[in-house]
Prior knowledge:
Elements: H1 3-14, H2 19-38, H3 42-52, H4 62-78
Amino acid sequence: MTIRELIEEQRRRVNSANPAERLAAALLIRGELTKRLDELNDHEIGQLLDDEVGAKLNLFAPESAVCDAAVTRLRGRAKGLSKSKGLGIRRRES
């Protein structure tokens, strides 16, 4: 199961009417997801953050600016830059 599949499975189960499904989402799937995320490099985390979090935020909300700054910083680190200016944020096409 890929990281994106784990994310979708957690989303599905967290909204379940079944308490056991919600518990699995909160503990088991989250634990596996955390292990997998620990294996990603900064660029991969930045891409995932952009795709799974940034794309769902209100463009005009302050959270969107924070997410974009984090993505830019993570992508810059992956390229060996300490602080990169002007990196565009590309959204994943659905």
